[in-house]
Design a protein that fits this description.
single chain; TIM Barrel; 9 helices; 9% strand; 43% helix; 4 strands; alpha/beta
Length: 164
């Protein structure tokens, strides 16, 4: 990837699923810092430690599962539903607005045209700082996928050709 960037074939390099441990283990060896790290991130899993590490190098965090992968505990959380009612939005729009307003890149997945349209309609309102703090307080720090779990590294190393 670094050779392709140097050759002008790509503009930037991105990585995914790099936890603080994985980031600190590998990225210092890179000649080029990634522009983005895509990881699971939503109000229940806000990746605060990782974001502090990425901020030092101006690396952006891109959320996957920004809507909690349909987690009904998140989508139906009383704070989320009360904000949705207040702003005349749906729960997903509140989550996406929070994440965007908190400086994250969000690319929600949907095949439903109405949801796709709704996902775009998050820029006509802004959460207050008190509401942002309340949303930040929802963080449990738990993900549904653990990139550091036993066997994940070996599985990835066996799936790709890695030249040393």
């Amino acid at each position: 990837m670094e050779e392709a960037k140097e050759a002008g074939q790509i503009k930037s390099i991105g990585v995914s699923n790099m936890t603080p441990k994985i980031w600190n283990q590998y990225v210092p060896q890179f000649k080029t810092k990634p522009a983005v790290n895509q990881v699971e991130c939503n109000p229940f899993c806000q990746q605060r430690e990782l974001r502090q590490i990425l901020d030092k190098d101006d690396v952006k965090l891109e959320c996957y599962y920004p809507l909690g992968h349909g987690n009904t505990d998140l989508l139906g959380h009383p704070l989320v539903t009360s904000l949705a009612q207040k702003y005349n939005k749906d729960a997903g729009q509140i989550l996406l607005r929070f994440e965007t307003q908190d400086g994250l890149i969000v690319l929600p997945k949907s095949t439903n045209p109405q949801r796709i349209q709704g996902n775009i309609q998050i820029f006509d309102f802004q959460l207050t700082e008190q509401e942002m703090e309340a949303m930040r307080a929802l963080d449990t720090g738990k993900t549904t996928h653990d990139p550091e779990a036993d066997g994940v590294e070996d599985m990835l190393r066996n799936a790709f050709v890695i030249e040393d």
